[in-house]
Structures are given as structure tokens and as C-alpha cells.
Amino acid sequence: MSSLDQKIAALLRGSGLTLSVAESCSGGLIAKRITDIPGSSGYFLFGAVTYANSSKERVLGVPLELLETHGAVSSEVASAMAEGVRKLSGSDLGIATTGIAGPDGGTPEKPVGTVFIAIASADGCSVFQHLFNGDRDAIREATSEAALELLSGTLLP
Description:
Blueprint: H1 3-15, E1 19-23, H2 29-35, E2 44-49, H3 53-60, H4 64-70, H5 75-89, E3 93-99, E4 114-121, E5 124-131, H6 136-155
């Protein structure tokens, strides 16, 4: 467990806020890192790995037209995933990841390593685009690290 993971735990405990995650390209790594910390049940409500578009639509309520118009790897879908998981779970915060971890699946417009990370709260949703380098494992690790850094920045006063 990293110092960032412990920092997130302390910030969530101290704030009294709850968290849920919807992961695609990170495959549950964010939820694992959060729940590796003892006592995380006090603030972590729900985690979903919605890898297939049908799961994004059925579980998280991502509109089919967003998936068809923008593709699963887009800011629009990341935002809908974060808002959807927050609504589904009743948590204060929702984080979502969607991207292309590779080694296949990239395009000139969205190369391997393209990742969108969204964080939703009652105040709205912010989405950040990244282009990570490396193999599949490195991209997934970088995605989870960036998502937790985003959460940390959101929780700091």
C-alpha cells in the first residue's frame, strides 16, 4: 500500500465523504487500492468494473447515444460513468476511468494509452484526459495513480 493510498484513506475519513468507483480500463485496480486499507468500509460504498459498453449502459445508465456518438473512450462517457456510479451507490463522490490499455485497440485519434478520468460530486463533474506510455500493466497502474491523485486534490481544502 502506498503513501497516496493511506493519504486518501485519511482524507476520506476526515471529510466524512463516501466514494464509489466505476472502472473500465483500470479493471478494478482503484477499488483494490482503496479497499486494501483497513477500515475502508467506512467510506467506500461501491465498485463496478464496467468493461463492456452494455455494462456501462445497463449498470451505470450511460446513454447508448453517448457510446455510439463519442465512443466508450471519451470525456462524455467518463463523465456519465462517474455520475452514474455516484447516483447508483448514493456516494458523495464518484470516480470513473475509461481508456485504451492496449496492446491493441488504439487509433490515430485515440492511441493506446489514451485515458479519461472523471470525478463527480454534488457540485458537478470534472474530466481529465491523459496519454500514458508503457505496456498494459503500466497504463493501468498509471491510470489508478492519476485517479487517486485527482481524488486527493479534490479532498484537500
